[in-house]
Structures are given as structure tokens and as C-alpha cells.
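Most newcomers find our protein records easier to grasp once they have seen one. Nothing more is needed to start thinking about how sequence determines fold. Here is such a record, shown just as it appears in the course material:
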Amino acid sequence: MGSCQLENFIVFTEKIINLYFRYGEPTFHKFYGLGLKAIDLFHNQKLSVNARLDIWRQPSIILGGETAEAAKAGLGGALFGTLFYRISSAASSIHLRVQIGYKTPGFLEGEKLGKGFIGRIGISFLEL
């Protein structure tokens, strides 16, 4: 068996919930993960809040770099909160974006392999 991913999108009262499940059984190692992304948990004219939770089980991996570090097999997870603050009033608006989170060692698409706190700040251009 190869790998698969199942995604579901649920919309209610202007909120979007994305639930996903992924599973793989490459030659010798099984892995799986599940996640929840909630968009517009809270929003008003100036502020919007999103959240994300990921949980996974994976085989041990070697984290590269100057010094190789082994990540043990087992459960891992990540939790993120993202805040968008509107700084312009045009239809195509500019938002200040702040994200904070934490993840354990392991693979999560778009994130560092190691563990630790994650903080990001930037500008987002959103068309409303």
C-alpha cells in the first residue's frame, strides 16, 4: 500500500474548518497524521484569528545540518495561532500578520524539522 491523504472542509457561520488525515506505509515504516485548521475563529472589521493543530506518528528520522540529530519514532504535534490585523481600509486590504506556535521534532510540511517555539511576523495582502 502507498500513502493517502483525506481532507474535509466544513463551513458554518462564516468559519471554515479543514480536517485532514494522512497515512503512509512505505516499504518498512508506517506513519500517520491528523490535523485541524480553523479559519476565522474570531473576526471583526479589524481583527481575524486562525488556529491550527497537527498530531502525527512517524518512524525515527535523521535531522540534517552541521550535526546530525536523530528524531525518535513516536507521536509528535504542533499548535499554531495566527492573528491578522487590518491596517488599510481598501477592498484589497493590507494586514499585519503575527503567528506563534510550538512543534515537537518531526516532519510537518512547511516547518522546521526540529522542535521549538515558532514566531512569525509579516504583511499579508488580502482581497476581501
About this structure: Strands lie at 3-12, 15-24, 31-43, 47-58, 61-63, 69-71, 74-86, 92-103, 116-127. Residues 3-127 form one domain. DSSP finds no helices and nine strands in the chain. The chain has one domain: 3-127.
